[in-house]
């Protein structure tokens, strides 16, 4: 049994409506996370009881269990490989833009310009330079730096993530109230103490918001990496598109959506917790 496109669209609309209803009812991130956990638990119980075995999507997943596990591992690895260096370099660029205000416009402008390039085009543009670099430096080629594979996808996603991380860092460093900064300076805080004891703690919720944006963006963009041989859930999605197989498309798309929602909810809960702590401190 395979629901038509309208059935899946209706299910997605119901889930979205439930999420909006929880938000309007005053449930915080923790309440929404508990509701999501309850939903996942209910679906898991239905799977365990065999109530969903007749769905063609479930049968497709059962027949491709090894591929799904490999796609999950590959997808998470690609996200981490792009996100972690983007956090380090993006935070450094954001801190530099905050410390040297006249540099903010050119730095943020260059990072914003990267967002204009379509992801597929950026991945394609990176293929030849990376292939040439691999040919010139065999050691890097042996380490996996090639024009086709994970390298162009990771580098492309990394470039996209620099803007949200840098912007969040810059905003976070400037989020501390002027009164708190002046009070710290009046107490004789050195610049390093001011950063570690005032600016970073008070700006942490703002930075978490940027991290949440970058994480969700990475989960989605990595899907396109399958077009350059990177792996991940995009492989299943594009196989399904090539074979006109809706179940195979969903087998790649649904885990990506679920992963993005789970990470978004987890980081949002941390962000709201830090916001409450910051509000209490100020």
UniProtKB/TrEMBL annotation:
Bilayer topology term: Multi-pass membrane protein
Name of protein: ABC transporter permease subunit
Q: What is the scientific name of the source organism?
A: Neoroseomonas eburnea
Signal peptide positions (record)? none
Pfam families named in the record: BPD_transp_1
UniProt entry keywords in alphabetical sequence? Membrane, Transmembrane, Transmembrane helix, Transport
Q: Give compartment(s).
A: Cell membrane
Superkingdom to which the source organism belongs? Bacteria
Question: What family is reported?
Answer: Belongs to the binding-protein-dependent transport system permease family.
Q: Which InterPro entries match?
A: ABC_transp_perm/SBD, MetI-like, MetI-like_sf
- Give the CC-aspect GO terms: plasma membrane
Q: Which residues cross the membrane?
A: 33-55, 76-100, 106-131, 143-163, 214-236, 248-267
ABC transmembrane type-1 domain location is 72-267
According to its UniProt entry, one GO biological process term is: transmembrane transport
